[in-house]
Amino acid sequence: MKYTINGSVMQVLDVELEAGEAVYTESGGMSWMSDGINMDTGVKGGLLGGIARKFNGESLFMTTYRAVGPSRISFANEFVGKILDLNLGQGQSIVCQKDAFMCAKDSVKLEIHMQKRLGAGLFGGEGFILQKVTGPGVAFLEIAGELVEKQLSQGEKLKIDPGHVAAFEPSVDYSIERVKGVKNMLFGGEGLFLATVTGPGKVWLQSMPLPNLAGALRKYLMINQGR
């Protein structure tokens, strides 16, 4: 399987498949494809996995696209941002926010990842349920805005507005801490909680979380509705 990522702010993933190769995505995730590709839609990962995705606001069904002969298939970014390609080795995993998964080679396992800590689940910006992709194979994630990578050393900490955390390696400890100081909580503009990630491991950050963008646009939409 070969692929290219084209574009700058609204990127497109173009995948070249040989006979027998396959990729899968959420139902409705494909943008365009050449002739010679068979579609197979089902509840990937079993019924329980599909139900968990549904309760998490994701699609119940996944569609696998398998090439009969040499062919091409494309997936377009749903929002302004970047496409992150992850070349995962056997058993290698990455934890990501629930809306990040775009598509993956059929050898990659996609599963639900539950937050172990109550505080991270309640106030972490993504709820209790995240996603985890596990190799071998290539997986592609959608990142909102610009992509920033941080490699944390052992014990190194980074405090982040929770919505900016796009993905992280399982070796990274993810927790939620209350902002210190009443004035900071009420008037600091960062909310009541910040995420703290502690190394070792890599963290991928996104510059424009979709809830932040929606909140920024909402006030202008309300003004226009009031006219």
Can you offer a commentary on this structure?
- By secondary structure, this protein is an alpha+beta fold.
- The strands form 4 sheets. A 6-stranded antiparallel sheet has the order 5-6-3-10-13-8, with no helix packed on it.
- It has a single domain, classed as Mitochondrial biogenesis AIM24 (Double-stranded beta-helix), CATH 3.60.160.10.
- A hairpin with a 5-residue loop joins β1 (2-6) and β2.
- Mean pLDDT is 82; it is low at 118-128 and 181-189.
- It is built from 4 helices and 19 strands.
- It has helices at 46-55, 118-123, 182-187, 210-225; strands at residues 2-6, 12-17, 22-26, 32-33, 37-42, 62-67, 71-76, 81-88, 93-96, 101-105, 109-114, 129-134, 137-144, 147-152, 157-160, 165-168, 173-178, 193-198, 201-206.
- Number of helix segments? 4
CATH architecture: 4-Layer Sandwich
- Uncertain residue segments: 118-128, 181-189
C-alpha-based Rg, rounded: 19 Å
Overall shape? globular
* β-strand amount: over 45%
Q: How many domains would you count in the coordinates?
A: 1
Number of extended strands: 19
The CATH superfamily label reads Mitochondrial biogenesis AIM24
Helices and strands, in order, run as EEEEEHEEEEEEHEEEEEEHEEH
Q: Kindly, what is the distance between the CA atoms of the first and last residues, rounded to a whole number of angstroms? A: 53 Å
CATH topology name, in short, is Double-stranded beta-helix
Q: Please bin the fraction of helical residues.
A: 10-25%
* Broad CATH class: Alpha Beta
Mean of pLDDT = 82
What is the strand arrangement across the widest sheet? 5-6-3-10-13-8
Largest sheet: 6 strands, antiparallel
Class by SSE composition: alpha+beta
